[in-house]
């Protein structure tokens, strides 16, 4: 990662830290799950940094879609306060996450979300990958209007059906 540099007063060099987005992960990107390898790779390259465990400030539905894929639905006030992990991510790392999450293919949308630190309750603004609005309500209905507090091993392993519910 390259930081921009310039000259300040008296010829001192000023290094501007790279711009980072703050992203809330609640499913397979969390530690211990299948897509976390991307976060590990981004961390090793300096394109991501783990910021801690958080939960959503408001209730949101967290549901499992086809093939046990977790989706956060942009239906604030429904569901549960969802727990997950927060990462600071460079623009290059964010592009890699967007590709994985299929934002250009209409799978997820990256939208603002308010979070609180699990231990301290301090508010933080971030972004999260929500199910695309074109099918979010359908997922909520198929899950019986029941949401999860956290995506866990139980949901990742699934049951006999392709849905978590």
From TrEMBL:
GO molecular-function terms, A-Z: acyltransferase activity; gamma-glutamylaminecyclotransferase activity
Domain of life: Eukaryota
A Pfam family assignment: GGACT
Domain spans labelled Gamma-glutamylcyclotransferase AIG2-like: 23-133
Keyword Acyltransferase annotated: yes
A GO CC annotation given for this chain: cytosol
Keyword Transferase: yes
InterPro entries membership: AIG2-like_dom, GGACT, GGCT-like, GGCT-like_sf
Residue numbers annotated as active site: 101
Keywords: Acyltransferase, Transferase
Similarity section: Belongs to the gamma-glutamylcyclotransferase family.
Function, in words: Putative gamma-glutamylcyclotransferase.
Name of the protein in question: Gamma-glutamylcyclotransferase family protein
């Amino acid at each position: 990662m390259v930081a921009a540099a310039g000259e300040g007063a008296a010829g001192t060099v000023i290094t501007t830290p790279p711009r980072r987005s703050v992203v809330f992960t609640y499913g397979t990107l969390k530690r211990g799950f299948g897509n976390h390898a991307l976060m590990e790779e981004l961390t090793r390259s300096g394109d991501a940094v783990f910021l801690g465990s958080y939960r959503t400030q408001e209730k949101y539905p967290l549901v499992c879609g086809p093939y046990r894929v977790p989706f956060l639905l942009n239906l604030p006030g429904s569901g549960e306060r969802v727990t997950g992990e927060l990462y600071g991510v460079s623009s290059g790392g964010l592009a890699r996450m967007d590709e994985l999450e299929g934002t250009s293919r209409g799978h997820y949308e990256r939208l603002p979300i308010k979070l609180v630190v699990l231990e301290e309750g301090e508010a933080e603004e971030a972004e999260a990958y929500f199910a695309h609005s074109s099918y979010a309500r359908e997922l909520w209905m198929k899950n019986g209007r029941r949401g999860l507090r956290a995506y866990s091993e139980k949901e990742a392993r699934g049951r006999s059906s392709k849905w978590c519910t």
